Amino acid sequence: MSPPRARKPSATATRRRCTCGGRGVRVAARAVIFAQMVDDSSAHPEIFTTEAAQEAERQRLFRLIEELVQWAHTTNETVLQQARNEIWRSWRLGCSENVQHPRAAELFNPDKLPA
Question: Which of 2, 22, 54, 86 sits a CA distance of 20 to 30 A from 111?
Fold first, then answer.
């Protein structure tokens, strides 16, 4: 009796196999985290005073997210620095809005992102 032969995967199964090594998940996670850390422009009507200004800012941030999700930009320091700058800007705006909080110095330090 012959030993059992290993089955070849079907052509369909081969096509379905992910060859990205999880890269897509990592870049998508980066974009989701960025979106959670940066306020929508409608949260700051004192800066973006019209619907048009809010929409223009929103589109600018969407374009940055579109850059973040490209695998080729994983090490693009220009894109990454733009994202860092937006996170810091949003954090500092949030800190300035909470200066009256009883624990503002501890919880809303504009020079230290929460960990």
Answer: 54
Q: In the structure encoding, which two tokens stand for residue 26, read together?
A: 């990592």
CB 111 within 8 A of CB 96: no
CA–CA distances in Å: residue 72 to residues 2, 43, 67: 49, 32, 9
> pTM here?
0.76
Quote the tokens at residue 56: 């223009």
CA angle in degrees (0–180, nearest 5) for 22-61-94: 105
Query: Strand, coil or helix: what is 18?
Result: coil
Q: Which residues, in sequence order, are CB contacts of 109 under 8 Å at separation 6+? A: 95
What pLDDT is stored for residue 2 in this prediction? Answer: 62
* Distance separating alpha carbons of residues 64 and 83, to the nearest angstrom: 7
